[in-house]
Amino acid sequence: MSDQLPNFASRRVIRPPSDPKRSPPRYGNQAPHFTRRKYVRWGFKGLAILVGAVLAVAGISAFDLYNQLNRDNIVLANVGDIDLNGPLNILVVGSDTRDGQGEEFGEVDSELADVIMLLHISKDRKDAVVVSFPRDLLVTIPECPNPEGGTFPLSNRKQINSSIGYGGVACTHLTVQEFTGLEIPFVAMIDFKGVIEMSNAVGGVEVVIDKPISDAYSNFYIDAGTHILKGTEALGFLRTRHGIGDGSDLARISNQQLFLMSLFNKIKDDGTLNNPLRLYSLSSAAARNMKLSESMTDLGTMVTLAGAMRDVDSSKMVFTQVPTRVLTGAEDGRLESLSEEAKALFNQIRNDLPVVIEPTPAP
User: Fold this and answer.
1) 3-state secondary structure of 255
2) What is the model's pTM?
3) Range with the largest mean pLDDT of 3-12, 53-62, 120-129
4) What CA–CA distances, in Å, run from 262 to 52, 118, 196, 317?
Protein backbone atom coordinates (compact mmCIF):
# COMPACT_ATOMS: atom_id res chain seq x y z
CA MET A 1 0.00 0.00 0.00
CA SER A 2 1.33 3.45 -0.92
CA ASP A 3 2.16 5.85 1.91
CA GLN A 4 0.84 8.72 -0.25
CA LEU A 5 -2.78 9.79 0.22
CA PRO A 6 -4.94 9.54 -2.93
CA ASN A 7 -5.33 12.79 -4.87
CA PHE A 8 -9.10 12.89 -5.38
CA ALA A 9 -8.98 16.23 -7.19
CA SER A 10 -6.99 14.81 -10.08
CA ARG A 11 -9.38 11.95 -10.81
CA ARG A 12 -11.44 12.06 -14.01
CA VAL A 13 -15.13 11.38 -13.58
CA ILE A 14 -16.50 9.27 -16.46
CA ARG A 15 -20.22 9.59 -17.11
CA PRO A 16 -22.41 7.58 -19.50
CA PRO A 17 -23.40 9.35 -22.74
CA SER A 18 -26.59 11.36 -22.49
CA ASP A 19 -29.82 9.76 -23.75
CA PRO A 20 -31.89 12.29 -25.79
CA LYS A 21 -35.07 10.29 -25.05
CA ARG A 22 -34.67 10.91 -21.34
CA SER A 23 -35.60 14.21 -19.80
CA PRO A 24 -33.00 15.98 -17.74
CA PRO A 25 -32.98 14.80 -14.15
CA ARG A 26 -34.85 16.93 -11.69
CA TYR A 27 -32.85 18.92 -9.21
CA GLY A 28 -34.26 16.89 -6.34
CA ASN A 29 -32.90 13.66 -7.84
CA GLN A 30 -29.40 14.96 -8.27
CA ALA A 31 -26.72 14.07 -5.78
CA PRO A 32 -25.68 17.13 -3.74
CA HIS A 33 -22.52 18.81 -4.92
CA PHE A 34 -20.81 18.28 -1.56
CA THR A 35 -21.26 14.46 -1.45
CA ARG A 36 -17.77 13.58 -2.63
CA ARG A 37 -16.22 16.17 -0.32
CA LYS A 38 -18.19 14.66 2.56
CA TYR A 39 -16.85 11.19 1.77
CA VAL A 40 -13.33 12.56 1.51
CA ARG A 41 -13.75 14.37 4.83
CA TRP A 42 -15.04 11.25 6.55
CA GLY A 43 -12.32 9.23 4.86
CA PHE A 44 -9.69 11.47 6.40
CA LYS A 45 -11.41 11.23 9.79
CA GLY A 46 -11.51 7.44 9.51
CA LEU A 47 -7.85 7.36 8.51
CA ALA A 48 -6.97 9.57 11.46
CA ILE A 49 -8.86 7.29 13.84
CA LEU A 50 -7.14 4.22 12.35
CA VAL A 51 -3.69 5.80 12.59
CA GLY A 52 -4.41 6.90 16.15
CA ALA A 53 -5.51 3.40 17.10
CA VAL A 54 -2.41 1.85 15.53
CA LEU A 55 -0.14 4.31 17.32
CA ALA A 56 -1.96 3.68 20.59
CA VAL A 57 -1.57 -0.09 20.25
CA ALA A 58 2.07 0.30 19.21
CA GLY A 59 2.66 2.59 22.17
CA ILE A 60 1.07 0.13 24.57
CA SER A 61 3.01 -2.74 23.01
CA ALA A 62 6.31 -0.85 23.22
CA PHE A 63 5.57 0.16 26.82
CA ASP A 64 4.65 -3.42 27.72
CA LEU A 65 7.79 -4.77 26.04
CA TYR A 66 9.91 -2.14 27.78
CA ASN A 67 8.51 -3.19 31.17
CA GLN A 68 9.14 -6.86 30.40
CA LEU A 69 12.69 -6.18 29.26
CA ASN A 70 13.50 -4.19 32.38
CA ARG A 71 12.42 -6.82 34.89
CA ASP A 72 15.04 -8.65 36.97
CA ASN A 73 17.91 -7.59 34.75
CA ILE A 74 21.41 -9.03 35.05
CA VAL A 75 23.91 -6.50 36.40
CA LEU A 76 27.30 -7.12 34.80
CA ALA A 77 30.69 -6.10 36.14
CA ASN A 78 33.71 -5.07 34.05
CA VAL A 79 31.73 -3.95 31.00
CA GLY A 80 33.16 -0.93 29.23
CA ASP A 81 31.77 1.28 26.49
CA ILE A 82 29.63 -0.59 23.96
CA ASP A 83 30.11 -0.01 20.24
CA LEU A 84 27.03 -1.31 18.45
CA ASN A 85 28.69 -0.67 15.09
CA GLY A 86 31.63 -2.95 15.84
CA PRO A 87 31.93 -6.70 16.43
CA LEU A 88 29.32 -8.05 18.84
CA ASN A 89 29.80 -10.65 21.57
CA ILE A 90 26.78 -12.17 23.29
CA LEU A 91 26.88 -14.80 26.03
CA VAL A 92 23.90 -17.18 26.18
CA VAL A 93 23.44 -19.23 29.36
CA GLY A 94 20.91 -22.00 29.95
CA SER A 95 20.14 -22.50 33.64
CA ASP A 96 18.95 -25.79 35.14
CA THR A 97 17.23 -24.04 38.04
CA ARG A 98 14.01 -25.67 39.23
CA ASP A 99 12.89 -22.52 41.03
CA GLY A 100 9.41 -21.68 39.73
CA GLN A 101 9.65 -24.30 36.97
CA GLY A 102 6.99 -26.68 38.23
CA GLU A 103 6.94 -30.09 39.90
CA GLU A 104 7.45 -32.00 36.65
CA PHE A 105 11.12 -30.95 36.60
CA GLY A 106 11.86 -32.26 40.09
CA GLU A 107 13.77 -30.51 42.84
CA VAL A 108 17.44 -29.58 42.77
CA ASP A 109 19.02 -27.59 45.58
CA SER A 110 21.81 -26.05 43.48
CA GLU A 111 21.70 -24.16 40.20
CA LEU A 112 24.10 -24.96 37.37
CA ALA A 113 24.75 -23.50 33.93
CA ASP A 114 23.47 -26.30 31.70
CA VAL A 115 24.40 -24.46 28.49
CA ILE A 116 27.10 -21.83 27.94
CA MET A 117 27.51 -20.43 24.42
CA LEU A 118 29.35 -17.40 23.11
CA LEU A 119 27.98 -15.80 19.93
CA HIS A 120 30.36 -13.53 18.01
CA ILE A 121 29.06 -11.47 15.07
CA SER A 122 31.68 -9.82 12.85
CA LYS A 123 31.81 -6.08 12.32
CA ASP A 124 30.75 -6.41 8.68
CA ARG A 125 27.83 -8.67 9.79
CA LYS A 126 28.81 -11.30 7.24
CA ASP A 127 30.20 -13.94 9.59
CA ALA A 128 29.29 -15.38 12.97
CA VAL A 129 30.75 -18.03 15.23
CA VAL A 130 29.16 -19.86 18.17
CA VAL A 131 31.55 -21.33 20.75
CA SER A 132 30.17 -23.84 23.26
CA PHE A 133 31.78 -24.27 26.68
CA PRO A 134 31.42 -27.84 28.00
CA ARG A 135 29.84 -27.80 31.43
CA ASP A 136 32.60 -30.10 32.81
CA LEU A 137 35.39 -27.75 31.69
CA LEU A 138 37.72 -26.89 34.60
CA VAL A 139 38.41 -23.15 34.90
CA THR A 140 39.38 -20.50 37.39
CA ILE A 141 36.30 -18.74 38.74
CA PRO A 142 37.38 -15.16 39.52
CA GLU A 143 36.28 -13.12 42.48
CA CYS A 144 32.58 -12.42 41.95
CA PRO A 145 30.21 -9.92 43.60
CA ASN A 146 27.72 -11.48 45.99
CA PRO A 147 24.22 -10.04 45.34
CA GLU A 148 23.62 -10.14 49.10
CA GLY A 149 26.78 -8.15 49.83
CA GLY A 150 30.51 -8.76 49.74
CA THR A 151 32.23 -11.03 47.26
CA PHE A 152 32.87 -14.70 46.54
CA PRO A 153 36.61 -15.45 46.57
CA LEU A 154 38.57 -16.66 43.57
CA SER A 155 38.37 -20.42 43.13
CA ASN A 156 40.71 -22.59 41.03
CA ARG A 157 39.92 -25.66 38.92
CA LYS A 158 36.16 -25.59 39.26
CA GLN A 159 33.68 -26.78 36.66
CA ILE A 160 32.53 -23.82 34.61
CA ASN A 161 28.86 -24.73 35.10
CA SER A 162 29.20 -24.17 38.85
CA SER A 163 30.15 -20.51 38.31
CA ILE A 164 26.49 -19.53 38.36
CA GLY A 165 26.39 -20.56 42.02
CA TYR A 166 28.98 -17.88 42.86
CA GLY A 167 26.86 -14.77 42.45
CA GLY A 168 24.54 -15.83 39.65
CA VAL A 169 24.92 -15.58 35.89
CA ALA A 170 26.97 -12.39 36.32
CA CYS A 171 29.73 -14.61 37.75
CA THR A 172 29.48 -16.96 34.77
CA HIS A 173 29.93 -13.87 32.60
CA LEU A 174 33.07 -12.83 34.49
CA THR A 175 34.41 -16.39 34.31
CA VAL A 176 33.99 -16.58 30.53
CA GLN A 177 35.52 -13.13 30.06
CA GLU A 178 38.55 -14.14 32.15
CA PHE A 179 38.90 -17.46 30.33
CA THR A 180 38.61 -16.04 26.80
CA GLY A 181 40.14 -12.60 27.26
CA LEU A 182 37.19 -11.15 25.34
CA GLU A 183 34.92 -8.26 26.22
CA ILE A 184 31.35 -9.55 26.32
CA PRO A 185 28.83 -6.73 26.84
CA PHE A 186 25.62 -8.75 26.41
CA VAL A 187 24.24 -11.70 28.37
CA ALA A 188 20.96 -13.60 28.07
CA MET A 189 19.90 -16.40 30.40
CA ILE A 190 17.06 -18.84 29.73
CA ASP A 191 15.56 -21.56 31.92
CA PHE A 192 13.42 -24.65 31.25
CA LYS A 193 10.17 -22.73 30.84
CA GLY A 194 11.90 -20.26 28.57
CA VAL A 195 13.03 -22.99 26.17
CA ILE A 196 9.48 -24.35 26.07
CA GLU A 197 7.86 -20.96 25.43
CA MET A 198 10.43 -19.79 22.88
CA SER A 199 10.14 -22.99 20.85
CA ASN A 200 6.36 -22.60 20.91
CA ALA A 201 6.61 -18.93 19.88
CA VAL A 202 8.35 -19.83 16.59
CA GLY A 203 6.01 -22.74 15.88
CA GLY A 204 8.64 -25.39 16.54
CA VAL A 205 12.15 -26.03 15.29
CA GLU A 206 12.94 -28.61 12.61
CA VAL A 207 15.79 -31.02 13.30
CA VAL A 208 17.00 -34.14 11.53
CA ILE A 209 17.96 -36.96 13.88
CA ASP A 210 20.28 -39.61 12.45
CA LYS A 211 19.72 -42.27 15.10
CA PRO A 212 16.90 -42.93 17.58
CA ILE A 213 17.42 -41.40 21.03
CA SER A 214 16.49 -43.49 24.04
CA ASP A 215 17.34 -41.77 27.32
CA ALA A 216 15.76 -43.47 30.34
CA TYR A 217 17.60 -41.06 32.65
CA SER A 218 15.70 -38.02 31.36
CA ASN A 219 12.74 -40.03 29.99
CA PHE A 220 13.30 -38.72 26.47
CA TYR A 221 12.65 -40.98 23.49
CA ILE A 222 12.46 -40.04 19.82
CA ASP A 223 12.80 -41.90 16.52
CA ALA A 224 15.28 -41.14 13.78
CA GLY A 225 14.07 -38.80 11.06
CA THR A 226 12.86 -35.22 10.66
CA HIS A 227 10.98 -33.72 13.59
CA ILE A 228 9.44 -30.36 14.45
CA LEU A 229 10.40 -29.90 18.09
CA LYS A 230 8.62 -27.57 20.46
CA GLY A 231 7.52 -27.42 24.07
CA THR A 232 8.80 -30.12 26.41
CA GLU A 233 10.05 -32.19 23.47
CA ALA A 234 12.40 -29.36 22.45
CA LEU A 235 13.63 -29.11 26.05
CA GLY A 236 14.19 -32.86 26.20
CA PHE A 237 16.22 -32.80 22.99
CA LEU A 238 18.47 -30.04 24.36
CA ARG A 239 19.03 -31.74 27.71
CA THR A 240 19.46 -35.38 26.74
CA ARG A 241 22.98 -36.82 26.82
CA HIS A 242 22.67 -40.40 28.07
CA GLY A 243 20.90 -41.42 24.88
CA ILE A 244 23.43 -40.01 22.41
CA GLY A 245 27.07 -40.71 21.62
CA ASP A 246 29.12 -41.66 24.66
CA GLY A 247 26.66 -40.03 27.04
CA SER A 248 28.99 -37.11 27.76
CA ASP A 249 28.27 -33.39 27.69
CA LEU A 250 30.38 -33.13 24.52
CA ALA A 251 27.80 -35.27 22.72
CA ARG A 252 24.97 -33.11 24.00
CA ILE A 253 26.65 -29.96 22.66
CA SER A 254 26.08 -31.20 19.10
CA ASN A 255 22.32 -31.35 19.79
CA GLN A 256 22.32 -27.87 21.24
CA GLN A 257 24.19 -26.42 18.28
CA LEU A 258 21.96 -28.23 15.79
CA PHE A 259 18.87 -26.83 17.50
CA LEU A 260 20.27 -23.29 17.61
CA MET A 261 21.22 -23.40 13.92
CA SER A 262 17.75 -24.63 12.97
CA LEU A 263 16.15 -21.94 15.14
CA PHE A 264 18.29 -19.27 13.49
CA ASN A 265 17.32 -20.48 10.01
CA LYS A 266 13.64 -20.67 10.99
CA ILE A 267 13.60 -17.08 12.21
CA LYS A 268 15.43 -15.84 9.09
CA ASP A 269 13.47 -17.88 6.55
CA ASP A 270 10.01 -16.91 7.79
CA GLY A 271 10.92 -13.20 7.76
CA THR A 272 10.58 -12.67 11.52
CA LEU A 273 13.52 -10.25 11.64
CA ASN A 274 11.92 -8.12 8.92
CA ASN A 275 8.34 -8.31 10.21
CA PRO A 276 7.62 -5.89 13.10
CA LEU A 277 4.64 -7.89 14.37
CA ARG A 278 6.47 -11.23 14.36
CA LEU A 279 9.57 -9.62 15.82
CA TYR A 280 7.51 -8.04 18.59
CA SER A 281 5.85 -11.39 19.34
CA LEU A 282 9.21 -13.15 19.53
CA SER A 283 10.78 -10.32 21.55
CA SER A 284 7.85 -10.39 23.95
CA ALA A 285 8.21 -14.16 24.42
CA ALA A 286 11.94 -13.72 25.01
CA ALA A 287 11.39 -10.89 27.48
CA ARG A 288 8.87 -12.95 29.46
CA ASN A 289 11.06 -16.02 29.65
CA MET A 290 14.63 -14.77 29.69
CA LYS A 291 16.77 -12.66 31.96
CA LEU A 292 18.79 -10.09 30.03
CA SER A 293 21.74 -7.95 31.01
CA GLU A 294 20.95 -4.28 31.49
CA SER A 295 23.00 -3.58 28.36
CA MET A 296 20.40 -5.45 26.25
CA THR A 297 17.19 -3.89 27.58
CA ASP A 298 17.16 -0.76 25.44
CA LEU A 299 14.73 -1.22 22.52
CA GLY A 300 17.17 0.44 20.13
CA THR A 301 19.87 -2.02 21.15
CA MET A 302 17.47 -4.93 20.63
CA VAL A 303 16.67 -3.68 17.13
CA THR A 304 20.39 -3.34 16.35
CA LEU A 305 21.11 -6.88 17.54
CA ALA A 306 18.17 -8.25 15.53
CA GLY A 307 19.44 -6.39 12.46
CA ALA A 308 22.93 -7.84 12.95
CA MET A 309 21.52 -11.36 13.08
CA ARG A 310 19.37 -10.70 10.02
CA ASP A 311 22.39 -9.78 7.94
CA VAL A 312 24.48 -12.84 8.83
CA ASP A 313 24.65 -15.45 6.09
CA SER A 314 23.74 -18.77 7.72
CA SER A 315 26.18 -20.57 5.43
CA LYS A 316 28.97 -18.55 7.06
CA MET A 317 27.87 -19.31 10.61
CA VAL A 318 30.43 -21.56 12.32
CA PHE A 319 29.70 -23.77 15.33
CA THR A 320 32.55 -25.04 17.46
CA GLN A 321 33.53 -25.68 21.08
CA VAL A 322 36.45 -24.98 23.35
CA PRO A 323 39.27 -27.40 22.43
CA THR A 324 39.63 -29.80 25.37
CA ARG A 325 41.00 -33.11 26.55
CA VAL A 326 39.40 -35.57 28.96
CA LEU A 327 41.12 -35.99 32.33
CA THR A 328 41.69 -39.16 34.28
CA GLY A 329 42.63 -39.97 37.86
CA ALA A 330 41.25 -37.74 40.62
CA GLU A 331 39.55 -35.51 38.04
CA ASP A 332 38.27 -38.38 35.94
CA GLY A 333 35.66 -37.30 33.39
CA ARG A 334 36.40 -33.61 33.78
CA LEU A 335 37.78 -31.57 30.87
CA GLU A 336 40.81 -29.35 30.55
CA SER A 337 41.28 -26.85 27.76
CA LEU A 338 44.03 -27.31 25.21
CA SER A 339 45.58 -23.95 25.98
CA GLU A 340 47.35 -23.23 22.69
CA GLU A 341 44.38 -24.24 20.52
CA ALA A 342 41.96 -22.32 22.76
CA LYS A 343 44.21 -19.25 22.70
CA ALA A 344 44.33 -19.34 18.89
CA LEU A 345 40.54 -19.64 18.68
CA PHE A 346 39.85 -16.66 20.91
CA ASN A 347 42.59 -14.59 19.24
CA GLN A 348 40.74 -15.06 15.94
CA ILE A 349 37.54 -13.85 17.57
CA ARG A 350 39.27 -10.94 19.32
CA ASN A 351 40.74 -9.78 16.00
CA ASP A 352 37.36 -10.26 14.28
CA LEU A 353 38.78 -12.80 11.83
CA PRO A 354 36.76 -15.67 10.36
CA VAL A 355 37.04 -18.93 12.28
CA VAL A 356 37.76 -21.86 9.98
CA ILE A 357 37.10 -25.38 11.25
CA GLU A 358 39.11 -28.07 9.52
CA PRO A 359 37.01 -31.14 8.72
CA THR A 360 37.75 -34.26 10.74
CA PRO A 361 39.65 -36.72 8.53
CA ALA A 362 37.83 -39.92 7.72
CA PRO A 363 39.08 -42.98 9.64
Assistant:
1) helix
2) 0.76
3) 120-129
4) 39, 17, 15, 12
